[in-house]
Design a protein that fits this description.
The complex is a heterodimer of chains A (285) and B (261).
Chain A (H helix, E strand, L loop, with lengths): L1 H15 L5 H31 L11 H10 L3 E2 L6 E2 H32 L1 H14 L8 H8 L3 H25 L3 H9 L4 H40 L3 H10 L3 H29 L7
Antiparallel strand pairs in A: 1-2
Chain B lengths: L1 E13 L5 E13 L3 E5 L6 H9 L6 E6 L2 E2 L7 E4 L11 H11 L4 H14 L15 H13 L5 E5 L7 H18 L2 E6 L2 H7 L2 E6 L4 E7 L11 H21 L8
Parallel strand pairs in B: 3-8, 3-9, 6-7, 7-8
Antiparallel strand pairs in B: 1-2, 1-4, 4-5, 9-10
Helix pairs in contact in B: 2-3, 2-4, 4-5, 6-7
Classes of the chains: A mainly alpha (285), B alpha/beta (261).
């Protein structure tokens, strides 16, 4: 309990660290939102204008005003009868799959990477295996996942997991070997024991680097989940696109694509925000 | 009374393909209780290695280090070490950096806070307890590193060129700060440096080392009253003597281009 209070207290000092005032933070956030949305606004306006002017076929390539109206008129539900799903349920299932897979992969990779770093024989045996498995794209794991775990969440989580686990385990061992020896020596002369050095020096020293790679590998994992939803899983955002194709409904296809982009962007922003607030001591790249 | 004795230390680094380098050759140094000892030598003379052996971070190839007559076998907060650079934990606040060693040893919260607050107060960092290392100047970072060592109540403070990366003005301030700390805490200090002036200003005893392999070539007692000043004649005499000696040692290993013909 006191440990948790400790952690909370140190987080509060981080947040309260005198970097800039509240007012300037708010106005900076507003400015960055505008900076992100403005290019999209331009694209949407051009698209709309082209559709109004008759340059694009509204049925084959509907503009946002068209497919957004479609979503609202359908009360945020897609498909018919028992196959119907709500938009929110689709977003939720895709996001949960990718977040659970990322979290499991991240924790497992950190644990495995630290363990291998302390155990040279195991490292020599397992590293070649990891180096052979890491280049297999997450998408390539989909058929095996479906065979092993059937059609469901387990398969999607498995795909995200293998998509990040091998790469991050290798990254963790590399990061561990590049930790500044003087930090470790300082900790030793301050009386830290062997295990304490791993948990209180090496782990915090490697976290920012490994987390950065998690962010980079998130996109691959996100694409793999959507591909899995398109070829097998029958629900989630990927399934909406396939439903659109089967019903020759271009509105639905474009809605699916827009949601995938927006959700992917949101998750990446979330990861960046986590990195900035919890792992702030190294500027994210 | 002798607190620490390093006796006939030799260190050979075994490199790849049978290459080995002798870093230290039969080096003996000692420090009395409460003394300020400087080890003066050029870069690469093995003085950092010597300090790490004394700290218990490295094992000597032959010879041994004895503290109170007992052989040193591992690192201990009794002999705390302060490095030149990057030694603060960037993810911890000033308070948590200073508390690091006490936390690892399971010191109770109330006592821990009291000890850390006291040390921060004595080194003039109380207002910065919540700051993080990247928000501090170079001199302040060094003060945190020294506070982090002092809070352990070490009997011997080992310092590996702690002020080498600082500019002249900051270095002078830090030297005076260190002398104040030494006088008020009564800790024995062993200080490695390549600055002749710094060694004369700070130390009771200066060991002069030469490089390749590292050997002790002289041991000079600095008999100047404190506080000392860089600009007195007596100071200058020590400066001239030590500079001549170091020059001789450096030139001994220097081979002029003409000789190669």
């Amino acid at each position: 309990m006191s440990r948790r209070l400790d952690a909370l207290a140190s987080m509060r000092t981080v947040l309260a660290a005198p970097r800039d005032g509240v007012a300037s933070t708010a106005s900076r956030m507003l400015r960055s939102i505008v900076r992100v949305l403005f290019p999209w606004l331009v694209v949407v306006l051009v698209w709309e204008a082209a559709a109004r002017a008759g340059y694009v076929n509204v049925t084959l390539f509907p503009p946002p005003s068209h497919f957004i109206r479609y979503v609202i008129e359908n009360d945020f539900r897609f498909g018919i009868g028992p196959q119907g799903v709500t938009m929110w349920a689709s977003i939720l299932s895709s996001l949960l799959r990718v977040l659970v897979g990322l979290a499991l992969g991240f924790v497992a990779a950190l644990a495995t990477g630290l363990l291998l770093s302390t155990w040279p024989a195991g490292r020599n045996f397992i590293m070649p295996l990891l180096q052979g498995l890491a280049p297999i794209a997450p998408i390539a794991w989909i058929p095996l996942g479906i065979v092993l775990f059937g059609v469901g969440n387990k398969t999607a989580i498995f795909i995200v997991f293998v998509g990040v686990f091998f790469v991050l385990t290798i990254a963790t061992t590399v990061a561990v070997s590049s930790v500044d020896q003087k930090l470790i020596k300082s900790a030793r002369t301050l009386g830290a024991s062997g295990p304490q050095i791993w948990t209180t020096v090496v782990l915090p020293a490697v976290l920012p680097q490994v987390f950065t790679l998690l962010r980079i590998n998130f996109f691959g994992a996100w694409m793999a989940v959507l591909a899995a939803e398109m070829v097998g899983l029958k629900n989630g955002l990927g399934a909406i696109i396939i439903m659109g194709r089967e019903m020759f409904d271009t509105d639905l296809i474009l809605v699916g694509m827009c949601l995938i982009g927006a959700c992917g962007y949101a998750v990446d922003s979330l990861l960046l925000a986590i990195q900035r607030s919890v792992l702030w001591w190294k500027e994210p790249t | 009374m002798t607190l620490l004795k390093a006796v006939q230390i030799t260190k050979v680094w075994e490199g790849a393909r049978g290459l080995s380098v002798k870093a230290l050759d039969n080096v003996s140094v000692e420090a009395d209780n409460g003394a300020f000892v400087a080890i003066l030598g050029p870069s690469g003379c093995g003085k950092s290695t010597l300090l790490e052996i004394i700290a218990g971070l490295e094992a000597p190839t032959t010879g041994d280090v004895r503290m109170d007559g007992r052989t040193v076998t591992e690192a201990s907060p009794e002999r705390c070490m302060v490095f030149q650079d990057l030694c603060l934990f960037p993810w911890l606040s000033v308070f948590d950096n200073v508390a690091f060693g006490l936390r690892r040893r399971g010191i109770a919260r109330a006592e821990l806070k009291e000890r850390v607050d006291e040390v921060l107060d004595r080194v003039g960092l109380s207002r910065f307890a919540g700051h993080f290392p990247h928000q501090l100047s170079g001199g302040m970072k060094q003060r945190v590193a020294i506070a982090r060592a002092l809070v352990q109540k070490p009997r011997l403070l080992l310092m590996d060129e702690p002020f080498a990366a600082l500019d002249f003005q900051t270095r002078v301030l830090m030297q005076h700060f260190l002398l104040e700390v030494w006088e008020s805490f009564g800790t024995t200090i062993m200080f490695v440096t390549h600055h002749i002036d710094e060694a004369i200003l700070l130390a009771d005893t200066v060991y002069v080392m030469s490089a390749g392999p590292g050997r002790i070539v002289d041991c000079v007692d600095i008999e100047l009253p404190r506080p000392r000043s860089y600009t007195t004649d007596a100071f200058n005499q020590y400066r001239v003597a030590l500079t001549e000696q170091m020059e001789r040692e450096v030139m001994r290993t220097y081979q002029p281009l003409a000789a190669a013909e």
